[in-house]
Amino acid sequence: MITLEGIARNPGIAIAVAAVVDAKNGLNAVSHTLLKSGMSALMQNLPAKDYPEAILACDSLVIGSTTRIPGVQAVAIAAEAATDVPEFATDIPCVIGVADLVASINDGDILIVDGYKGVVHIDPEPQVLIHYQQAEQQRHSREKVFITSEHIPATTASGETVLV
Fold it and tell me: 33, 41, 98, 39: which is closest to 64 by C-alpha?
């Protein structure tokens, strides 16, 4: 396992296979296995939510924000360059300024991008993987509590009951 630190740009946690994309090689650096999975998803006419997931590991945020791999859903971005580009807003977890990222990844590596702490784990050990999976499950279960409790009435200081 390799842990690299960077700058948290967009919060969230993602766990998926790495898709290396850089300015020099473009999509040629992406694993052939991942590309085949993406093409298979397209040929089966799967909805985008069922596409295989990947984390874009790239040399810059611009490359990561603009790259689309056919039939593959990008769930996070990790970029070597620390240059932030505000006009490339992203709604997925993102860490920038991760030194030696692209050179540290091997074909088929699993990545964890922690957009809260600004950390990228490459080929994580089982206990680290379990820790992040459990953290995400807890985060999602807390969100469900708020969604399912929205029908509970609230009482104002004057004693009126209000539906929220």
Answer: 98
The pTM score is 0.78
Please tell me the distance from the alpha carbon of residue 114 to that of residue 8, in angstroms, as a whole number. 8
pLDDT in tens, 2-59: 999 999 999 999 999 999 988 787 777 787 788 888 888 989 998 888 899 999 999 9
- Residue 111 has which token pair? 């990545």
**3-state secondary structure labels for all residues of the chain:** CEEEECEEEECCEEEEEEEEEECCCEHHHCCHHHHHHHHHHHHCCCCHHHCCEEEEEECCHHHHHHCCCCCCEEEEEEECCCCCCCCCCCCCCEEECCCCHHHHCCCCCEEEEECCCCEEEECCCHHHHHHHHHHHHHHHHHHHHHHHCCCCEEECCCCCEEEC
Question: Residue with structure tokens 């929220």?
Answer: 164
Q: Are 4 and 120 in contact (CB under 8 A)?
A: yes
